[in-house]
Amino acid sequence: MDGRASIKYGVVMDPTRPQMTLADIARLAGVGSATASRALNNDKGVSAQTRQRVLNVAAQYSYVVSPEAVRLAKGKLGRVAVVAPHLSRWFFGEMVEGIETVFRDAGIDVLLYFVGSLEDRRAFFEKLPARRKVDAVIVVGFPVEEAERARLELLNVNIVAAGGQHEVYPNVCIDDYRAGRQAMDHLLFLGHRRIGMIEAVDLDQPTEPSGRSSAYREALKESKLPLDPELVVSAPWGGEQGAQAMDALLSLKTPPTAVYAHSDEVAVGAMRSIRRAGLRIPEDISIVGIDDHPVASLVDLTTIRQPVRSQGELAAQMVLALLEGKTLPEREITVSTQLIVRSTTAPPRQDPSQISS
Amino acid sequence: MDGRASIKYGVVMDPTRPQMTLADIARLAGVGSATASRALNNDKGVSAQTRQRVLNVAAQYSYVVSPEAVRLAKGKLGRVAVVAPHLSRWFFGEMVEGIETVFRDAGIDVLLYFVGSLEDRRAFFEKLPARRKVDAVIVVGFPVEEAERARLELLNVNIVAAGGQHEVYPNVCIDDYRAGRQAMDHLLFLGHRRIGMIEAVDLDQPTEPSGRSSAYREALKESKLPLDPELVVSAPWGGEQGAQAMDALLSLKTPPTAVYAHSDEVAVGAMRSIRRAGLRIPEDISIVGIDDHPVASLVDLTTIRQPVRSQGELAAQMVLALLEGKTLPEREITVSTQLIVRSTTAPPRQDPSQISS
DNA sequence: TGGAGGACCGGAAGCGCTTCCGACAACCAT
DNA sequence: ATGGTTGTCGGAAGCGCTTCCGGTCCTCCA
């Protein structure tokens, strides 16, 4: 350890020793830089012997190429941007894990852009920090507005959406309407006639009419049940908000015998309200959520499972295909959802016919 | 839209139109490339008038510099790597959100490396994909082994750790021992004498003797209570595992009257077991966790709150300081934890003196 | 009025790679 | 023996920036 090296917190830092360059390796191996490059990249046109010599030298000095120089020289970035409105929420974390896994295997770097608040989001689309930095973009879990789309086009790269319907971009998602129907049909099948819905909305994100909501209305209509407006309340995504929404439902003169929540987080919050109100689940009131969030099994919540990680993986694979210039076999992929019956749902206590006003 | 542009899924892609270069802008503005560069970078040595002219041209063609070329030319990367073992878990997602926010404001890109499994992790340290790509590394929530540390040094960059004690790297974390004591002292104060502990271990990560565990032993010792080995069970992080661990505790001939879980996820799982066993919380058995995970408030779990996002922010700020060549005022930052009493803890039913054997 | 100094600017040399193209040698078929 | 391959290799031209270095031109003071 020479005098130039400084020790910071136990880590040896030696900024005076510049990284080796390809030219160094070439010289050391006694070949031209072109040959060295070819050897390192496993290109053809190098004798096995020469290649080995280069490789040995490179290994000896633990040489790695400068990605910047490579990218500059060949014009490809080998990087993709993932932009997501949340990370700490299970759905998004899981999604990003799936995406990251696929890209890592493909040797592609993932640049993360977290656009939680409205300002973040606006700033992202305004400044487009990903400009000239990525070959593609994956938008996770939120609809892109018209104006934003225009900005995104400036990137001049492929875009795919994951976990959120999209008319414009190739995407992978679940069928929200179907998921909602699975939940509603389950409740209906059990005999419930007065069903409440807690709509989850994201205050920081523009809302779109959700399939999960229309599923509620359609299901009711098909069962020839009235649509009582006071039975549907909307709440921002999240447990606390779900709890409040449930409080509202509970304060009705005729509360529902079952509630359909747009997400498990919301459902779990609602369960707290029910419990605190001294009511039992599912005896007094049934509840079903959507997602199969890990917490769902812990609180024995009946829910509609959606495979999140694989949505991420599929989206990443789409990007990979696009990057290779392939045409996508299908513009959008819908993964299926599944009813998981646990113990928060049961038939209503009384004969439904007696309850219905 | 000329004939060259192809439309894929509504997105205009025109690979034939190369990005504008600095030289183009310079020419268009009638200045040399050096001047254009200075104008764009807000360097001095350019008249206000010339600068404005360049800026106008650049804006007109919505020009952005090529980050690769910049990095190549000036040798700085402006990127940092975040390596984390999980993302879908609240703790990690929250942490990364905090980190990302700070770096985004500083104009630094975040490269994400997710090393969930042991193989991932090994591969990461083996191949060091971040090599020559980042100016610093933040390691989130896991201890770095000796051998890994050696590899990390090859990166020749600053490293800081977030959410996990570290003897070597600058870091920010909570005092695990103290958090554990807060939990235990609370239970002890309530009068519990037979307290179980569910140790959370991460199978995919090397474990270290945790402060959370020693807090248990120390607290017991100080209260002159015996240390009954069968009262401590360890479980992989996660709700289901917590549930199983609790089952074990419940099957003891003298089950504990309270349990201290290393994390809220584990605690919530344990609650399910207790509930399924027909026992009531907190009447029959008390439980306390650590984290103040969002779900904790939803299930009314008493817990020790730790500020996760700000740990991430602080870690990022440390990196920023290091990057600017500053010396850190403090090598490690400990953020404080806080007991949040909700309704899963209460005094034991019977006089503790009757229970203690 | 002359020259020193400063403000402004452009040319050009890198930064570390990839890749085109030409050179050379050895080897084949004619 | 000769022309044409084929297989290897190196020189050098970029890729799009930053920045050193020097050149103009103008100002200001002696």
Describe this protein with a few key phrases:
14 helices, disordered N terminus, 18% strand, six-stranded parallel β-sheet, elongated, six-stranded mixed β-sheet, DNA-binding, 357 residues, homodimer
Brief synopsis:
With 357 residues, chain A is α/β, with parallel strands linked by helices. Chain A is built from 14 helices and 14 strands. Chain A is elongated and about 90 Å long.
Give the SSE layout:
Two copies of one chain form a homodimer.
Chain A: E1 6-8, E2 11-13, H1 22-29, H2 33-40, H3 48-60, H4 67-74, E3 79-84, H5 90-105, E4 109-114, H6 118-127, E5 136-140, H7 146-153, E6 158-162, E7 171-174, H8 176-190, E8 195-201, H9 211-222, E9 232-236, H10 239-250, E10 258-261, H11 264-276, E11 286-291, H12 294-298, E12 302-305, H13 308-323, E13 332-335, E14 338-340, H14 352-355
Parallel strand pairs in A: 3-4, 3-5, 5-6, 6-7, 7-13, 8-9, 8-10, 10-11, 11-12
Antiparallel strand pairs in A: 1-2, 12-14
Helix pairs in contact in A: 1-2, 1-3, 2-3, 5-13, 8-9, 10-11
The first copy, chain A, binds a DNA duplex (30 and 30 nucleotides) through helix 1, helix 2 and helix 4.
Describe this structure in words.
Two copies of one chain form a homodimer. The first copy, chain A, is α/β, with parallel strands linked by helices and 357 residues long. Chain A is 41% helix and 18% strand. Chain A contains 14 helices and 14 strands. Chain A has helices spanning 22-29, 33-40, 48-60, 67-74, 90-105, 118-127, 146-153, 176-190, 211-222, 239-250, 264-276, 294-298, 308-323, 352-355, and strands at 6-8, 11-13, 79-84, 109-114, 136-140, 158-162, 171-174, 195-201, 232-236, 258-261, 286-291, 302-305, 332-335, 338-340. In chain A, strand 10 (258-261), helix 11 (264-276) and strand 11 (286-291) form a beta-alpha-beta unit. The first copy, chain A, is elongated, with a radius of gyration of 27 Å. Residues 1-17 and 352-357 of chain A have low confidence and may be disordered. Chains A and B meet through strand 2, helix 4, helix 5, strand 4 and helix 10 of A and strand 2, helix 4, helix 5, strand 4 and helix 10 of B. Chain A binds a DNA duplex (30 and 30 nucleotides) through residues 19, 21-23, 26, 31-35, 37-38, 41, 43-47, 50, 65-66, 68-75.
